[in-house]
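pinned: reference chain
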Amino acid sequence: MKYIIAIVITASVFVYGVLVGEYQIFPFEQLQLTKQFIAGDNWLEKRCHGHVKRYAFFAQIAKEGNAKHVFFGDSVVDGLRSENFFGIAYSKMASSGNIVECLDLIGSDLIALKPQNIIIYLGGNDADGQGRQSVTELSASYLTFIEKLNAIGTNVVIHGIHRGYPGTRDQSYADDLNDSLRNIAGTTNSHFIEPFGLLDFAENQANFDELTYDGEHLKAAAYLQWLEYIDRNLPESFPKFLVTKNSK
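pinned: its structure tokens
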């Protein structure tokens, strides 16, 4: 048994060396290749199966409430569980672990809803290595989704992805993705909101424990400041998140 384990380890090291030395494929990319190999041709359907159901559930709730304004995204959006954050304006459509490529399967529920306004925060999980697309491939999926929203007259706000904590997020990927999202916003007449600098977490940050659980997912204090930031940067045609005495 020990002999077999030694052979497996040796072979793994050899393959790693070939990928790095010959093809410049590093651990982040190897993770994607491994996941594709295990899942086979049905990778996307398997990866997005739960998200498809969850978005359909949110879409049905939004439809019954005749929702006109949607906040769309992943676990960072889904973590907004208090109605005090939303007032009465926005319906949440979010699924933890969602990636941009899943838009190819989940977008139809949102399109059928025909919202007036939508804010999109999506791509963080891709920057964490949970997807399989390069920034170029991801951008093509994202652009197609925005064009479908444009076609039904929905006003779109694209929110840049927070750089998060360097220990868990590929910040270079996040930076490249944000550059691409800025371009998509410009070419589709969408509005782009820059990533909120407070949520670009650094090692030994003094207020880390006050704002976040893990450098990506937010606590109430961070959500409050983030939504205040979004409200300051929304187009006038979009309702605000935080209901104040001055906004009633």
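why pinned: Residues 18-30 have pLDDT under 50 and may be disordered. Strands lie at 69-73, 90-94, 117-121, 155-159, 191-193.
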